[in-house]
Write the structure tokens for this entry.
Amino acid sequence: MNIVYDPKSAPAENLLSPEANKAAELAAATAAAPGVLTVDLDAIVANWRKLEKTAVPAECAGVVKADAYGCGIGPVTRALSNAGCKTFFVATLDEARAVRAISSSATIYVLDGFFQNTGDAFAQINCQPVIGDLYELAEWDVFCRRTRWEGGAAIHIDTGMNRLGLTIAEAQGIVPRITAGDHGITLVLSHLACGETLNHPLNAKQVATFREIASLFSGVPASLAASSGIYLGAQFQFDMVRPGAALYGVNPTPEADNPLQPVVDLKARIVQIRNVEKGDSVGYGATWSARRPTKIAVVAAGYADGYFRAGGSSDGTRGAEVVIADKRCPVVGRISMDLLAVDITDLPANAARRGHMATLIGEGITVDELGHHFGTIGYEVLTSLGSRYARIYKGGDAITVTPPPADEASATQTSA
Ligand SMILES: *Cc1c(COP(=O)(O)O)cnc(C)c1O
């Protein structure tokens, strides 16, 4: 596993190469950054392979919407693509463009679907809308007839989520078109509302409804399961599965241990260490006060960096924890915009110093745990990860390919 952009791993003779310059630049940026976000591309690939194995013979796609859940759509798409992932799901056309810039051959589905003025963009990128409404389908047909575009589209059928998708009756209404052949529909999909709850009655209802309607779309591949749905069993896997969160280390089976590897490590710098006296309060609102003479580490991450305010603590409630010098320490008082405070009284003297890093995610602190402290889910922790951290991508052979401008920007984003 090579740590990309680590100047120590760059051979001396490469020192003047663009890669080496970039490495030096990134090392400098990391040294000055208030925090460092490390994304383990090898872990993402290992998770994808495990999901693929779990769902075989179904195809395993990769969902890379929302900047690959905050992990970086460019590097993640490249790593998955190199690992053999052939189908990607995104939410928007801009995201489809980012995937196409990495892979000329990937099949790309755009979950937000088609609007009348977006046809040319779909054709240009050669990506496929996920159509969830009869008007949208009619508009798409008009566009395809007018331009003779034959790139195809997916049909989303609602089976109980009531978010996107044709109703069952509407889906039945377009079956004649399927039997007539030459229909341009490359995938039929639906989405589970309660996939993370093993015995939720809606799962059985949705899978039965989908099985029935999908069988009428004969010859068209079918897809129902996202991350959690994969773990509901083979009957949920159909021809293709669409994991997102599980790729990035979120536990798809919240009722059991996480079968997948953590992907994100987040560290932020200790900017000050101070002693407070028994009875003194810490932070805005003076919500937390010291019950003993207390040593506080003030860390350079706050709610503007995606460390939610809900992770703070008060005299009555516990908050999140961070790891400093290999030990878990509690966050004390409110989270500020750029800073949080940690009680490090129980660490050995001098174990933590100004300039050292505190681990906010990693060393046993999962995105799911943080989500719990933040009153949300791991998904939102990931998609909220701030832009002030230096980013390091670890592993993934693909990263040696020159990155496109879009992810160069994210790779060097280090503003303080
Ligand atoms: C976001 C999304 C996925 C991926 O869901 P995860 O729970 O992150 O695996 C799959 N399918 C659809 C339709 C989605 O919107």
Q: What stands out?
A: Residues 63, 65, 111, 191, 226-227, 242-246 surround pyridoxal-5'-phosphate (CB under 6 Å). DSSP finds 14 helices and 19 strands in the chain. The first helix runs from residue 18 to 32.
